[in-house]
Amino acid sequence: MQAKEIKTGTVVVYNGDPLLILGIQVQTPSARGAATLYKFRGRNLVSRQKVDLTLKGTDALEMADFHKRDVQVMYRDAEQIHLMDTENYNQYAMNLDDVGDQLLYLSEGLEGIRALIYNDGPVGLELPASVEMDITQCDPAVKGNSATSRSKPATLETGLVIQVPEYIKDGERIKVDTRTGEFLSRA
Question: Where does the record place the Translation elongation factor P/YeiP central domain (predicted)?
Answer without folding.
Answer: 68-123
